[in-house]
Amino acid sequence: MIPSDQLNIAEAKSIAALYGIDLVTVSAAGGGFSGACVHRAEDSSGSAFAMRRTPHSDVMPAERYCEMVALLREMSSRGCSLIPLPLRHQQSSHTILQSTRQPAFVNLDTSQTRIQANDGVWQMEPWMLGEPAQGPPTPGQIKSALEALSLFHNTAAECTQARSDARSIAPWFHVSEGYAPGISRRLSIVTELGDGLLTSFIKSVAAETDPEFRDCAKRVCAALEFWLPWLRKQLTEVARSSYRLQPVVRDLWRPHVLFTAECVTGIIDLNAMATDHVGLDVTRLFRSWFGADIDRIRETLISFRSQRLLDASEWRLLQAYDASTALLSPVTWLRRRFIHAAADCTSPEVLLRLAELTSVAERFEPL
């Protein structure tokens, strides 16, 4: 994430100009742990935009991204107004702009929505109104969120099916019956942990110099030692079955659902979209809202099941997704610290996030 005091205002204004926007103000608004950052920009008329900068090493491949943008535009045209549509810039494909006063700006792909500048890739979209829930959401917010997710999922499925009927199925976005990709990924993590990675983590904990990270890592490893055999069994069982698959958000958690009072007014940060089961979205979101409060999660899932009928096999899938979300989420940070020696793992923001994930893992109860 680029700190606000290090933001290159001149570069941001030059990039906004490529989208036909006369940028007046720009300020840091947030960012992700991957290095992506978001800035809130306003033009001379007072309209607000989100300027997203992603490290070039982390951008979505062009084919997948262009397919996602086309799907989002179709969804918007069918009434799904909760999603921000990437703006088109005014340069033709593969145009390179350069002058003595600004760096080269490269159009990244045929969607004409992404601009590469230096080591980052920029895109712009309308600023969505609202804020994430502060603490656990209210019953009214939960109701609105379930309705918004239903609209998103149903529209995504309908649009994808219509697009697939007109041409061959795209590799990233399709409606089909098949194995759940997220379960396969999580089962591979569990297998890796059982084959020696967890033992390596336990050994590394003793040598960890940061006391907060060491404490969290020790507690995570203890939870994994206890639950890993059970989790492997759960994931293995559901990995053998086929499910209804469709485009989903995939990386849906608390900051990505915006509320104005009780109503959802935005679902943002859609750059991880792919095909999976809708249960991946709801279990991830509910855990980020309620942590280890299993009673609230069960209660909210009852509401979800009243909107979307699930057979016994799909319910087991949701249980496996919930369990693996709770137990495996901290593994990313242990891997980055102990395997890749990432220094940012001891930043205050990461330690706060890791402490939250650690608490959920060690207090985990199955649905």
CATH architecture of the largest domain: Alpha-Beta Complex
Briefly note the structural class of the backbone. alpha+beta
Query: Which H/E pattern describes the elements?
Result: HEEEHEEEEHEHHEEEEHHHHH
CATH homology superfamily of the largest domain: Aminoglycoside phosphotransferase (APH), C-terminal lobe
Main sheet attributes: strand count, strand direction, barrel closure = 7 strands, antiparallel
Which strand order does the major sheet show? 1-2-3-7-6-5-4
The percent range for strand residues is: 15-25%
Q: What is the overall silhouette?
A: globular
Identify the quaternary structure here.
single chain
Q: Rg to the nearest angstrom?
A: 21 Å
Q: Level of helix content?
A: 40-55%
What is the average per-residue confidence, as pLDDT, rounded to a whole number? 92
The CATH topology of the largest domain corresponds to: Aminoglycoside 3'-phosphotransferase, Chain: A, domain 2
Q: How many β-strands, per DSSP? A: 12
Q: Termini separation (Å)? A: 36 Å
Count the DSSP helices. Answer: 10
What ranges have pLDDT less than 50 throughout 5 or more consecutive residues? 1-5
Q: How many domains in all? A: 2
Q: Please write the CATH class name of the largest domain.
A: Alpha Beta
